[in-house]
Amino acid sequence: MARIKNIEFYNFRNFKSYKTLFDNKLNILFGDNGCGKTNILEGISLISKGRGIRNANIANLIKKDQDNFFIKNNLEIEKNIFNVEIFTEQKNEKFKKVIKINDDSSKDSLNFLNKSISYLIFLPEMERLFQASPSYRRNFIDRLIFSSRNDYNTLINKYKKSLLERNKVLQSYNTDNEWLNRIEIEICSLGLEIYNLRNSQLNTLNIELRNMKHDHNFPFDLKFEIKDNFVSNEINFEEFLSNLQNSREYDKQFGGAKIGPHKSDITSIVNNEFEASLLSTGQQKTIVLMVLLAQCNYLINRKEINPIFLFDEIGSHLDKHNRQILLDMINRFEIQFFLTGTDKNLFSFVSTNAHFYNITKV
Q1: Half-sphere exposure of 339 (CA within 13 A, CB side)
Q2: Are 134 and 246 contained in the same domain?
């Protein structure tokens, strides 16, 4: 189990210098819009591989007119304290994020950190999850997969890189068919793994939500599934490869790839009647919270992973169903929570002890 004991920012986003201690259970950050609440969550989310909850360019994390940022914190893992430092390093006019654990940035240390910390995240735009673009829904599911498989983003990046390489070959004047065949075999292999992992994730959610309905007064019955014009539940490598090869002329003309997991959508059927896109903003938020509760239950009880929750601007549209689901999460799981909102009073329903932090503009 990982818990963040404190954090210090230097030249990070809007902070010249900022530091604070954190509670092991429930931390609520409140303050006006633009004061830096989300920036604090973003800094916390950088304590692992990746570019944080905003997936921001590393250079954009540096405070204006400064050369680099520095984040420092103490991370408790299985009752042991580790010093974690995160900072920027510039090479060939590009910035990259560097992480050191107890002053060690070796691959083994980073692997240990990535295996020890997992996040479940709520962002305000998730309130329109089923009215957003298909790519946003794919990313939402991919983040859930990443919460249990810290190597998943490597798979996604390899797949994207292969698609770009194939596009370059198709656009070249002298197409190397042997190389093109190799790339397409790689695309199909990686693509099938992504399809299978997404299907497995959705099946997990469907099972967890169904099982948890007995303990929770969920307002909806949900069934998640992949919507794809090419694949069905029976995904066949040879068929995938054949269709990809047959789409070469189309892809050469229009760019990209006509088929593959990058073209999928994620749908949710509500009460066996209609798609979740017809729900209100508040109701879509309910579904997202139900999903996060189900995923957390799966991680803790099936995978022995204790995630850290990051809830940004969670205070709006909290009807009785949303408040109850949020309380269920807080009361059920002995893990660390970070919640942000514009007003302390938005969290008056929280019955357990909470530590409040008034974040003011700097």
Answers
A1: 25
A2: yes
Distant-in-sequence, close-in-space partners of 356: CB < 8 Å, separation ≥ 6: 28, 29, 30, 344, 347
Partners of 100 in the beta sheet?
Answer: 85
Compute mean pLDDT per 10 residues along the chain, 362 residues long, and list them: 95 95 96 94 94 91 93 95 94 89 94 94 96 96 96 96 96 87 97 95 96 86 92 79 94 93 96 95 94 96 96 88 91 95 91 88 69
Which of 63, 121, 110, 83 lies closest to 6, judged by CA?
83
Residues 6+ apart with CB under 8 A from 304: none
Residue 27, token pair as written in the block: 């931390």
User: Against a cut of 0.85, is the pTM above it?
Assistant: yes
**Do the Cβ atoms of 359 and 37 come closer than 8 Å?**
yes
Q: Which of 50, 69, 53, 52 is nearest to 12 (CA)?
A: 69
Residues 141 and 267 in one domain: yes
Q: How far apart are CA 86 and CA 107, in angstroms?
A: 15
β pairing state of 94-101 and 355-358: unpaired
- Give CA–CA dist 257/243, Å, rounded: 11
Q: Residue 7: beta bridge partners?
A: 20
Same structural domain, 236 and 356: no
Q: How far apart are CA 206 and CA 222, in angstroms?
A: 7
- Smallest CA-to-CA distance from 49 within 193, 176, 154 is with 154
What contacts 362, CB < 8 A, 6 or more positions away?
14, 15, 16, 18, 35, 36
Domain boundary among 268, 294, 320: 294
* Two structure tokens written together for 108: 């083994």
Mean pLDDT for all residues in the chain: 93
* CB burial of residue 168 (10 Å; 0-12, 13-18, 19+): exposed
178-185 contact pairs (CB < 8 A, 24+): 180/248, 184/241, 184/244, 184/245, 185/241
Sign of CA dihedral 45, 225, 148, 351: positive
Please give the pLDDT value at position 217: 82
Question: Domain residues for 231?
Answer: 125-294
Q: Where are the strands (E) in 56-212, listed by range?
A: 70-77, 80-91, 94-101, 119-122
Q: Are residues 66 and 186 in the same domain?
A: no
